[in-house]
Amino acid sequence: MEPEVRGVNVDAFSPRFGSGWLVAGGAEGVSGDDGKPKLLEGSLGSIHFSMRKGVGHRWTRFCEDSILVCVGPRGMVAAVFDGVSGEMDGSGGIASRQAANTLLDYVDSILEQEEPDGVLEEYRRRCESTIVTGATTAVILVIKQDGVCRLYSKGDSMCYAENRLVNTLDSVGSTLLKWLNDDNPFNRYTFRKQGPITLCSDGVLNTWDDRTEITVN
Q: Phi, psi (5° rounding) for residue 78?
């Protein structure tokens, strides 16, 4: 099962995908704005995703958010990484892409373990030591065959279930207090899936022209 991908200027999201997985968004390096709107959307099984980057973001020609979706026989992992704009130089997009690429290395171990906390902590520590350019938030959802949802978050990206915010945001106003590649552990939440679950960047609150969403149906 490969993801379906469509949109406008899709190459700006540098999608990588294979059987049962997709990584998209962010970039390997920083470049100037090309003045073009960007939209990527699609699905992988029951998971739907959408990434939008409007015009006028003069510091980058790519989306600073990144996503990962992975579906396998043992369950699924979905994640949103919102690159921290910082000095408006696009470095957050480098951090978010590195976080998504690195998580792909851990997906099999996450789904194989009965309790994945240790694997996610190993992943977080690796990001802390290897992401040296920029910073990124993280909201990572793990659902196994037993139907239990495990959420790991740092930063101000969000998870909604039954129209309620699941996670506490690591921010005060517009000030971000924690991010993936700092030295604090994940905030962890456990709940049962009763309906659609949505992961999203804070762009959903700030502007409809710059947002990232993953919905698990």
A: -135, 140
Q: For residues 90 and 46, is the Cβ–Cβ distance under 8 A?
A: no
- Asked if residue 77 lies in contact with residue 103, where contact means CB atoms within 8 angstroms, the answer is yes
For tokens 């990584």, the residue is 23
Residue type, 213: E
- Which CATH code fits 4-216? 3.60.40.10
Which residue shows structure tokens 């207090």?
A: 177
Q: Which two tokens stand for residue 117?
A: 């906390």
29/43 Cα distance (integer angstroms) = 27
* Among 54-63, 192-201, 207-216, the least confident range: 54-63
pLDDT in tens, 95-118: 999 999 999 999 999 999 989 999
Element (H, E) at 97: helix 91-112
Domain residue limits, the chain? 4-216
Give dist(CA 200, CA 169) in Å, integer. 12
Packing angle between helix 117-130 and helix 91-112, nearest 10 degrees?
150
206 contact partners, CB below 8 Å, separation of at least 6: none
Task: Report the phi/psi class of residue 168: left, alpha or beta, with left for phi > 0 and alpha for psi in -120 to 50.
Answer: beta
CA distance 11 to 51: 12
Give the contacts of 118 (CB within 8 A, at least 6 positions apart). Answer: none
Taking the chain, what is the end-to-end CA distance rounded to the nearest angstrom? 17
- The answer, yes or no, to whether residue 16 has pLDDT greater than 80, is yes
